[in-house]
Amino acid sequence: KLPYAEPFRIKMVEEIQQSTREQREQWLKEANYNLFNLKSSQVFIDLLTDSGTGAMSDQQWGALMTGDESYAGSRSFQQLHETVQKISGYQYLLPTHQGRAAENVLFSVLVKEGDVVPGNSHFDTTKGHIEFRKAHAIDCTVDEAFDIENLYPFKGNIDLAKLEHVYQIYPKEKIPFCLITITCNSSGGQPVSLENMRAVKELSDRYGIPIYFDSARFAENAYFIRQREKGQENRSIKETAREVFSYGVGMTMSSKKDGLVNIGGFIALNDEKIYRAASNFTIIYEGFITYGGMAGRDMAALAVGLNEATEFPYLESRISQVEYLGNKMIEYGIPIQKPIGGHAVFIDALKFLPNVKRAEYPAQTLANEIYKEAGIRTVEIGTILADRDPDTRENRYPKLELVRLAIPRRTYTNNHMDYIAAAVKNVFDRRDEILKGYHITWESEILRHFTVKLEEA
Ligand code: F0G
């Protein structure tokens, strides 16, 4: 048997720069200990996000050159529309400038004050758009997701009892839809099984509640279904994705992930009335309905990207690389969410830094230590990200306090993965010396993690 190798070769490279520990300590201080405030030149390996940070293929760059920039009825829109129809089975398409814009447009139609939206660990902008409308997101993720050692293969699944409880205690008019996020970013890039989606659909049908998908990483989710679900191993990714979408009535998409482009998003759905209403909001917030904030060339590149992202060899190389990094960490004894997720490795900061108080943000503390160690930028998925409770204004302490190492698509090599694992191991080896975290000196009302200012505790 031959070793595994990537199904692509590299045609263009971008230089990245090393720095010294002294420089990084100074830069971090100037950034108010918030990694979002760093300049990219101060970062050696950037694992802040897998969103919009991947490499496009030669086919996508080619498509950019032939994009059609017509304000209305662009040919590139047609190409994208046909591709989305083929992949999702949904009839109508509304492009938007990115995923949260799709949420803004769709929720402007569907979500009202006092509503509840059940789902599996909503992403922060999704929750933000729900709470901004004085509605509530209710997390119905299975309990297995919150035990990092539990090897349950579909930790993105929705707990049917939790969901039915929501359906029973709230009147139907207060539940505009159930939202399934594939893969579930907040629980660690964890997939949702086909079986679970079927069951959620059956239950939701009984209560008359429609299902929408937050499908930023739908192709990675389909890959996991193929790898882990009985009877799915011989199906193509496109076939599986199509079945997934058949259990819902529509989707929001951040094209910056499984669209393999640097910017873009869309809504796809079947209901004409909702499409008409959402079209008005698209025009107000985004642009005319055949571009919605995207350049024609970007829609053309996205049409190609969606096709590439739903091919098995691409997904195998993508997810194997994340697995490679995760397995190294496991080998070093570092506590990470298992099984390893699709787009990122998630470190359990409470287990990694048991000496740092919860109120001093252990995950942020660990992310900052990893940056100081090796110039690697990661992101806190913990208490800072969880924001304050909109009613009590108290800190919300999530069940897990995580540091996410998100791997951009087709961007870094496995040598980078070795470097990252070694850097985290160095921090792990001196974890007993890390006793203090940070205090917040300034924060915004909502989505505070992007701009929060911190000081050393
Ligand atoms: N839904 C999910 C599951 C996401 O992960 C994101 C973005 C969005 C929606 C919003 O999409 O960024 O295009 O507006 N996630 C990025 C991340 C930012 O780092 O995980 P967007």
UniProtKB/TrEMBL annotation:
One of the protein's GO biological processes: aromatic amino acid metabolic process
UniProt keyword Cytoplasm, yes or no: no
GO MF term set: carbon-carbon lyase activity
UniProt cross-references to PANTHER family, sorted A to Z: BETA-ELIMINATING LYASE-LIKE PROTEIN-RELATED (PTHR32325), TRYPTOPHANASE (PTHR32325:SF4)
The family this protein is said to belong to: Belongs to the beta-eliminating lyase family.
Protein name: Tryptophanase
Domain Aromatic amino acid beta-eliminating lyase/threonine aldolase: 46-422
Alphabetized Pfam families for the sequence: Beta_elim_lyase
Keywords annotated in UniProt: Lyase, Pyridoxal phosphate
Modified residues (N6-(pyridoxal phosphate)lysine): 257
Cofactor(s) required for function per UniProt: pyridoxal 5'-phosphate
UniProt entry tagged with the keyword Transmembrane: no
Domain of life: Bacteria
